[in-house]
Amino acid sequence: MKKIIFIFCILNYLNGYGQRYDHLNIFDGRSDSYQNQFIRDEKNLYSLLNVYRDSAYLNNTFIANVEKTNYNNMVLTKFENNKAVKHIHFGSYETFGRIHLVNDKIWVTGSRQGDFWIDGELKYPSAPIPDGSVRDYFRGFILIYDKDLNLERDIMLGAEEYVKVVDHHDGKYYIAGNYGLRSDTMTLNNVTIRDEYNSGKEMFLFTLNDATFDAESGISFGGPGREGLDRMHIDKEGNIILMGSTRSGGFHYENSVFPTQGNFALSSFFLIKIDRRGEPVYFHSFDTGEGPDNPNNRAPDLTVDEDGNLYIGTFGRVDKFKFDGQILHQSTNNKVLLVFMCLSKNGNLRWTKFFESSGPAGSIFNKSNILYDEIVFWGYSNQTKLIYEGDIFQPNDTIQVAGMIKLDKNTGAFRSYQDIVAGFGSRLSDMEPLPNGNYMTWLTWYGHSGDAKGEPFFENKKKPNSSFIFEFNPEIPQLVSTLDEVAIDSFTEINIIPNPIQKESKLSIQTNEPIKTIEIYDINGRLIERISAVDETTTIDINHSPGTYILKFQMESQGSVYKKLIIQ
């Protein structure tokens, strides 16, 4: 009984210093988490929900229904102060897309098949059905809204033409994506580009006047294989960085040809920087691409800091990771690799960091943010343990686990890992940083009825096919909400000697069970130190300020247990 009271004392002590989770909104209804996405400005949040053959609800209020004859639709929602104020329903037989906040406008770009409806009104009728086909071809669209979600402009594209990325610089919009499956040409206004290789999936880049939205220039690039563009960044000097996947052995941009590691069976990723004159600055090819049609959160992620350094999070489906043809890492267990890289402004490789998995299932970390001297990668592991230098830091291989990895921004050194919600089977759809240092997070539940047991924020709110948008503070640890009775009993098996302890003293940890790691948190829940390679009598030098601290012990078989340490 005393042990249980001790645990709740720790919880009560921490509750006065902020919450780990807050501001929950719940979407119900079958959804493709690969397509779900949100963006935010200084005040508002905008979400794009993919609804798959179902009705959609937000906080138990009906918002949209996919007709029985259709496959999937999308719902665009505006949130003010974490409350939904407007929904827009996009419907066709099959609809998918992305949202972008560019130049103070909300862009929805995507592709639809069949009649295209917006809030029940027919916007575009289906095109004539080709001979031998059941339906018309997919056709791209661009919808541009103000921040109150009033439609200002729409642009209908041709068959299999799809805008994936949008940016703005110096009076021009830059739009890029894929075309070529149904035609070897693409025309916007009077600007026509051509796929010289008849590849079936080529890439395009157009510039539009930001006052008239008329096309001013265009270029087709890629190669003879199927290609897919995923990311674009335009720096303050007007240089363009493009990243995606290619199945061409040679990547063509204007008059330049670059060797890749792709072939017609397996994609590789490409990264190219183009200067303002349209000349390539550098090109890189690395393993392994997912394919030419990556949805948003299965594509590699790209973040650029103020100095122009690039941070890339990706994964390899083969056990060797190659960069420009050179093997940088080979898995010790021949399994999937998680890969993080930093390149300088000039394209030189600064550092790489590799994490291995315990199984063949894909492990995708798809979002990155720069936070002071750290680079933060977010994503999920799909029923596989995650391993770094032989240490299993994500041990759950029975469910999908959403989590975050922190690396040193300058060296790539591993700082920490944590589950977003421990024991909660979930897939990360998206995340965005907030001004207060927290993150808006979108998780789709992919677990079992017992997941997150004991976590009050999620308990009794899980339904089949539900997803959660909430504010997440990673600095407040999920300390003991998921401990079971076995873990509670483990408190008697760990001794901290002495406790309390004087500053500038040595601390001895004694236990009957092997400890994998020790993490030291301050009373505000911020991680101070992480110690690995722990044996039965590890000694720790204490140089921290006087106060109360929490020690988290990662046990060999019982999970995590916690002890309070007082420094006098």
The whole-number mean of residue pLDDT values reads 80
Percent of residues in helices: under 10%
Q: How many β-strands, per DSSP?
A: 47
Percent of residues in beta strands? over 45%
Radius of gyration: 25 Å
Low-confidence stretches: 1-17, 480-492
Spatial order of strands in the largest sheet: 5-4-1-40-39-38
For the biggest sheet, the summary is: 6 strands, antiparallel
CA(first)-CA(last) distance: 28 Å
Structural class, by secondary structure, is: mainly beta
**Could you please say which CATH topology of the domain at 485-567 applies here?**
Immunoglobulin-like
Describe the oligomeric state of these chains in a short phrase.
single chain
Total helical segments: 2
Q: Give the CATH class of the domain at 485-567.
A: Mainly Beta
Q: What would you say this structure looks like, in words?
A:
- The structure is a single chain.
- This protein is mostly beta strands and 568 residues long.
- The protein has a domain at 485-567: Immunoglobulin-like, CATH 2.60.40.
- Helix content is 3%, strand content 54%.
- The chain has a six-stranded antiparallel sheet, with no helix packed on it. Strands 2-3-6-7-10-11 form a six-stranded antiparallel sheet, with no helix packed on it.
- The longest helix has 14 residues, at 2-15.
- The protein starts with a helix and ends with a strand.
- Mean pLDDT is 80; it is low at 1-17 and 480-492.
Keywords:
disordered N terminus; 6-stranded antiparallel beta sheet; 568 residues; Immunoglobulin-like; 54% strand; single chain; 2 helices; mainly beta
